[in-house]
Amino acid sequence: MSIVVASIPSGHVYVRHLDAGPPAPEPTVVRLPDPPTGASADSPWWPPRMLTSAWVHEHAAEFDVMHVHFGFDALSPESLTEVVLALRQHSKPLVLTVHDLRNPHHAASETHEAQLGVLITAADALITLTAGAAASIRARWGRGATVLPHPHVVPAKWLELQRPAHDGFVIGIHAKSLRANMDPLPLVDAIVEALPDLPGAVLRVDAHTDVMTPGYQRHDAGFAGHLQELAAVGSLDLRVHDYFTDDQLWAYLQGLDVSVLPYVFGTHSGWLEACFDLGTRVVAPDCGFYGEQRPCLTYAASGPERLSTLTEALHRAHADRTPPRADPTQRASERIALARAHEEIYAEVLKRRLACTS
């Protein structure tokens, strides 16, 4: 008999790749589809309708376990407490995967910490991606977390696709929509200054239309103007566009030799996983646990050595053109192991919940 999981969300690539592969005739774990919200074309599951006490009360007979990954930033700590109480009322276990100890979209940490406090304290089981994150959870909340790696991000055909040949050495910074944990301009200037010492190197900077275009809510005139000035004199290759489709993103990453993550805080990264899948070297800040998550070069996330350590990392990447890349067979085996590990966790929390109510 299948264990039915209300995964929040279900459609996120991380959650989709927790299953072992093509649907089995009698799957051991079934995840409910995300109730569509229509609020975001890029994240159609956000804000998550499952993560409300009303939804839990209405649909309690339809699932066995709730597993929260993302989306709880849409709710106040008080609303999350109501969800927890509803789950307890219906004897439904709660599993939480702690992806982010600091929300990359929040300039301040207090709200996310309060939200995490509710969920981590109430969860019947905790999962996270790295030993460092698990140690932080234990130190801050006194709870143990099972450490399970991030599954592959790109589809199987891209895992196996040979990287296209190109001239030179392409360093990429993608500023996206300038979320709160990004500070790319100092890095851009440092890389432009370092380019003459990196033979054949060019800097490609991508940014979303909403940041670069006057009249848009997220427009940043200083950021846009500085990039445009550098592009006008040929110091960098500036690309302005809306969100990539998945295939556009994979092709973009394969066109880079190095992807620089311009973060000043963070925890884990799906972008890092995609680069590992595709064989693109990552230069990441030393905040969070990027270096534990997958092999990468690091630089100081803050402080006076931030730019010098970035330059040093780029010189190392330029000297070694053999970045690590995921092995497709190992990724497939890892996915099977992750599916089994999650099934065991779901079965265990159900067993404990049944023991508490019998």
SSE layout and pairing:
Layout: E1 3-8, H1 13-16, E2 29-31, H2 53-59, E3 65-68, H3 77-89, E4 94-98, H4 110-122, E5 125-128, H5 131-141, E6 146-147, H6 156-159, E7 169-174, H7 185-194, E8 201-208, H8 209-212, H9 221-232, E9 237-241, H10 246-254, E10 258-260, H11 270-278, E11 281-285, H12 290-293, E12 297-299, H13 306-319, H14 328-357
Parallel strand pairs: 1-2, 1-3, 3-4, 4-5, 5-6, 7-8, 7-10, 8-9, 10-11, 11-12
What does this structure look like?
The chain has helices at 13-16, 53-59, 77-89, 110-122, 131-141, 156-159, 185-194, 209-212, 221-232, 246-254, 270-278, 290-293, 306-319, 328-357, and strands at 3-8, 29-31, 65-68, 94-98, 125-128, 146-147, 169-174, 201-208, 237-241, 258-260, 281-285, 297-299. It has a six-stranded parallel β-sheet with strand order 2-1-3-4-5-6, sandwiched between helices. A six-stranded parallel β-sheet has the order 9-8-7-10-11-12, with helices on both faces. The model has no long low-confidence stretch (mean pLDDT 95). By secondary structure, the chain is an alpha/beta fold. It starts with a strand and ends with a helix. It contains 14 helices and twelve strands. The protein has two domains: 3-152 and 333-357, Glycogen Phosphorylase B (Rossmann fold), CATH 3.40.50.2000; 156-319, Glycogen Phosphorylase B (Rossmann fold). The chain is globular, with a radius of gyration of 21 Å. Helix 3 (77-89) runs parallel beside helix 4 (110-122). 40% of the residues lie in helices and 15% in strands.
